[in-house]
Write a structure and sequence with these properties.
This protein has 260 residues and is an alpha/beta fold. The chain has one domain: Spore Coat Polysaccharide Biosynthesis Protein SpsA, Chain A, CATH 3.90.550.10. 29% of the residues lie in helices and 25% in strands. It has nine helices and 13 strands. It has a seven-stranded mixed beta sheet. The protein has a two-stranded antiparallel sheet with strand order 2-3. Helix 2 links the parallel strand 4 and strand 5. The mean pLDDT is 95.
Length: 260
């Protein structure tokens, strides 16, 4: 059995005013919330045991009928803290899919991640520059490093990129942890130094990419599951407007098909 945990605790400040009274994951894209779109794709792929870890306006996520846990410290913590607020769900067993509440993806991309048999798999967009150029006048303003070895295992991710040479793709926010590594995954988190600074952030505010880098540096094998677009990140009002406009003229599907 494969389980999925969706991290949706943040306030979504860059999507204001749309998030003034609701969490980012409940903002609409073409009539459906980001969360509904992601959950529908997961269920179509056979992943039906789902947990959303909320924080800001989690009451609305519960009212929408989703299975929830809460990160009560959502205002002062980041993604990794939110993930491990759901540790009792993670411990139930099975392969684990981890996704962010502000992404959607095509089912064929998800199926590629599900089929990864490595300890950890992360979905990476090899055609990222085409997508970033849609959203940013200078892709390097937002892009982060993502370096792979010759066998497709991740060496480095999540650092500020100074050139395109250290960007073999872009991390998308979709992760799979193999069932037999779940306990080690949890234990590794528990073993981390609470007083260390991780890429400029304290332990409670560690980025997910920083956590993955710690895992890689400790000798874990993290496989890059390469895709060519087929996903969207909705990080700002500008992102949403771009996608809505592309949909109206029939061009959004060239970046990502919206699953019904």
């Amino acid at each position: 059995m494969t389980r999925a945990i969706i991290l949706a605790a943040g306030q979504g400040t860059r999507l204001r005013p749309l998030t003034n009274n609701k969490p980012k994951c409940l903002v609409l894209l073409q009539g459906k919330t980001f969360l509904e779109r992601q959950v529908n794709v997961l269920k179509r792929a056979g992943v039906k045991d789902l947990l959303v870890v909320g924080g800001y306006r989690v009451d609305l996520i519960k009212e929408a009928g989703f299975n929830c846990m809460v990160n009560p410290k959502y205002e002062s913590t980041n993604m990794v803290e939110t993930l491990f607020r759901g540790v009792s769900f993670i411990e139930l067993g099975g392969d684990l899919i981890i996704g962010y509440g502000d992404i959607i993806y095509q089912i064929d991309n998800l199926n590629q991640v599900l089929s990864c048999e490595d300890e950890i798999g992360v979905m990476v967009d090899r055609n990222w520059r085409r997508y970033w150029e849609l959203r940013f006048s200078d892709p390097l303003e937002d892009a982060e490093t993502f370096v792979m070895d010759s066998e497709g295992y991740v060496i480095e991710l999540g650092k500020k990129a100074k050139s395109f040479k250290r960007i073999h793709g872009q991390y998308t926010g979709l992760i799979k942890v193999r069932e037999d590594k779940i306990k080690d995954f949890i234990d590794f988190y528990k073993s981390l130094n609470r007083n260390k600074i991780y890429d400029g952030k304290n332990f409670s505010n560690m980025y997910m990419t920083s956590f993955l880098q710690e895992i890689i540096d400790a000798g874990w094998k993290v496989k890059a599951v390469s895709v060519e677009n087929g996903w969207l990140e909705i990080d700002s009002v500008n992102d949403l407007q771009i996608y809505e406009n592309l949909y109206k003229v029939g061009e959004l599907a060239s970046f990502c098909r919206l699953e019904n």
